[in-house]
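Journal club prep, notes for RB
We'll compare a predicted complex against what the paper describes. Inputs for the glyoxylic acid case:
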Amino acid sequence: MTDSHRIFATADIGESLNLLRQRGYEVEVYPQPEAPPKSLVIAKAKSGIVGLITTLRDQIDAEVFEAGKGTLKAVAQIAVGFDNINRADANRYKIPFTNTADVLTEATAEFAFFMMGALARKLWTAEHLTRNNDWGFWHPSLPFLGDEVTGKNVAIIGTGRIGQAMIRKCAGFDMNILCYSVGDLDHKYVNAIQEVNNLRHQLGIAAAKSWIKYTTFEDALGEADFVSLHVPLLKESEGPNPTYHLMNERTLRMMKPTGFLINTSRGPIVDELALSKALKENWIAGAALDVYEKEPLPSDSPLRDPAIEDRCRLYPHFASAGRVTRLSTDPAKGMAGRTVQGLLDILEQNYGGDITKMPYVVNKEAFSN
Ligand code: GLV
């Protein structure tokens, strides 16, 4: 086996790796569940690997690309988000990288929906009541009540793939939908959802006619009972519409005091210090988070404050963690399968070797002259 067939994976992505092995690649997998130190990734890149399989925990930038100069041909990330990969550096070194969009869309959106429900209907508090043997009586309103999601207003911040999937799920619960996007507005999609709403009402399936519309960020926050975030993480240096700390003291105060925030996108989109203050001082009613500014969530995070425990649901970056979604070897179904296919497309010069035609490559712009 020559160096030109070696691949390093920073995490075990399961059976899909066998497909690489069957095709003659030598695959080395970092054996620990935690991410490898960056120095190890650099050392592997320097050792002549042709492919690097990464997770969102790995910082991939010029240091890694420089170490792999002349030998590293592709980086394949098992995630849809790729804010951990420095796109400008990848482009400078002309290294294509892939992601796993599409296959996790439904899983992520349904988890966002379930988080919203868990928060609104106080599932955690209610189960604790039962388990702690504090359920002393059935009473119309004691010890607490929750809020239905059916018929309420939800703001979908970001109407890309996952935002649109969340819209579909919310529409099924007769929610009114306020859409906001920093990028292109998909009026065709929004009109189609409205048509379905109209038909459900007309056929007597839905009692009220639900609505959906694009609106401003301010109005979306101000009118929503639930705000669900579905934007990529973009720092100030990464374009005209940065999303870093999109939810901060100023914007959290735009939400209703009865409003709930749901974040399945990326942690740094929410200023956690501001959020913990908002929860403590009741500027908003609650938040459910799956992603954090620092992951895993540090033990001293203000979000762990017992004073806000009843209204702050915390999950371990788990939204795409369905068995099929994470591990299916089928690139049309699983992140692992898609990661391997993306890598093979580049290494085996599929699509006539034209990187701009490879469906899973993110930074196509570096290859279109
Ligand atoms: C998960 O967060 C992903 O980006 O796939």
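Talking point for the session: The longest strand covers residues 153-157.
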